[in-house]
Amino acid sequence: MSTLDAGDVATGADSRSLTRRTFTAVPTAISVIAFGFSTVSYYESAMKQADLAVFVPPVIHYGRDGGGDVELFAIPVTITNDGARTGTVLSMDLEVERLGALGKDEPVKKRYYSTYLGEHPRNSDAINRAFAPASIAGRQTYSETIRFYPAGNPLPKLVQDKGEYRFTLHLNLAEPSQASWWDKLWTPKVRPVTFALTMPWMSEQHLNFRRGSMAMHAKDHRPTSANSR
Fold first, then answer.
1. In this structure, how many other beta carbons lie within 10 angstroms of the beta carbon of residue 217?
2. Residue 42 φ/ψ region, left for φ over 0, alpha for ψ in the -120 to 50 degree band, beta for the rest
């Protein structure tokens, strides 16, 4: 066999070896990619922790109960769960701050808590639906109007005139008693929702004697949201 023929044979052998390696590597790469996609899909559909996002509309209502001594805020709240596992909201806290002082003895900020569900009833003898923990399954949405009442002494009232007010809504979530390191590392935390609303006018008679409510709205008439972090 000549030197040229031996070189041709060697070149052909190298080409066949390279072809076999190529055909072997392609299915392996496809398998790895498929495995990666299936792992991500399984995590998103079954393992992903509850990932809650809170939305507040641009209009809420302020009312009074207890003969006009107890003020309340009726806020429609929507919570979405972008995770796969169920997230449970045990309660909600609301901090309200008046932007602009009335007098030195008047409160500037007060705290309220989630007490009842539904709009403020016009009848004083209406049955109230107590707030209960809300379990939000994966990829599901929870929407309800929450009525917030003062935490502690309701007097003196915070809202005594028209003006602008800043709200901060906190969600208190159920957490596992013995969370794994994975849960501690990857469980999202819901940020408080902060938004400012304006009460354009106020009527004591409408609030105290008619058990009516006053609308408070955002200046840009847009909803506010807070995603998890």
1. 14
2. alpha
